[in-house]
UniProtKB/TrEMBL annotation:
Keywords on record: ATP-binding, Nucleotide-binding, Nucleotidyltransferase, Transferase
Source organism (scientific name): Candidatus Caccoplasma intestinavium
Database matches in Pfam families: Fic (PF02661)
Its EC number(s): 2.7.7.108
PANTHER family to which the protein is assigned, alphabetical: PROTEIN ADENYLYLTRANSFERASE FIC-RELATED (PTHR39560)
SUPFAM superfamilies recorded: Fic-like
InterPro entries listed in its UniProt record: Fido (IPR003812), Fido-like_dom_sf (IPR036597), VbhA-like (IPR033788)
Lineage, highest ranks first: Bacteria, Pseudomonadati, Bacteroidota, Bacteroidia, Bacteroidales
GO process terms (BP): regulation of cell division
Name under which the protein is recorded: protein adenylyltransferase
GO molecular function ontology, one term from the record: ATP binding
Enzyme class per UniProt: transferase
Length: 221
């Protein structure tokens, strides 16, 4: 198993950045009880070391699954973890970000490209779930017809917030409130937590916060 912490502590900046991104990407799969393959881990190591590019890493993962003759239910879960991890790694090392509804749906589409047929599509049906993060309580999420308005409202409220007027405790509290509110809307049929996490990291970086990915890598919900 690759030791991402070693890359993060001891490596030059480029390796450190990629190590953080992979650590976060893989850590976030635990949200849905998913674990990537050993092949993905080895591919991540090659990417961090500069032996291959992220484009080549993505192609290797796609080819790996295309070459499989037999597929089991476990393979489907591992495939999801591998593809989502690779896509998140790419997103977390890009320098572009849009704090908009389109930006949010774009992140979902890019994370789950090759995984879900509905990647990037706002759900058009109502859902309830028992969430283990809420100790098994059943949650009724925002109804489908109200999703766009709910997201736009939360984003607009966040745009108007003045971070210069709060101390560190107030800052942490506000961010937690914003993230939980966005998550509870449950914009998509699946993949909401991973999408919200990536969106949050990129957003905070875009407004000047030095956000390390291990905020989510080591403490995935």
């Amino acid at each position: 198993m690759i030791n991402f912490d070693e890359y993060i502590r001891q490596s030059e900046p480029q390796k450190r950045e990629k190590g953080y991104a992979w650590q976060t990407a893989i850590g976030l799969q635990a949200v849905d009880g998913l674990k990537p393959s050993d092949y993905l881990i080895e591919t991540a190591r090659k990417d961090i070391e500069g032996e291959i590019t992220i484009d080549e890493a993505e192609q290797l993962i796609r080819s790996y699954y295309q070459s499989k003759i037999a597929h089991t239910p476990e393979d489907a879960e591992i495939h999801e973890a591998d593809m989502a991890s690779t896509n998140i790694r790419r997103l977390l090392t890009e320098k572009t970000f849009a704090f908009t509804l389109v930006g949010l749906t774009s992140i979902h589409r890019r994370i789950f490209d090759g995984v879900f047929k509905f990647a990037g599509q706002i759900r058009d049906y109502n859902i309830t779930k028992k969430e283990w993060v809420l100790r098994g309580d059943t949650v009724l999420y925002v109804s489908a017809p109200d999703l766009r308005k709910a997201i736009e409202y939360d984003l607009e409220q966040e745009r108007q917030f003045d971070y210069s007027k709060v101390d560190r405790n107030g800052l942490v509290s506000h961010i937690a409130q914003f993230v939980s509110g966005l998550w509870q809307i449950h914009t998509f049929g699946e993949g909401n937590t991973r999408t919200t996490a990536v969106f949050t990291i990129l957003y905070l970086r875009s407004i000047g916060f030095d956000v390390t990915n291990d905020l989510f890598a080591n403490h995935s919900w």
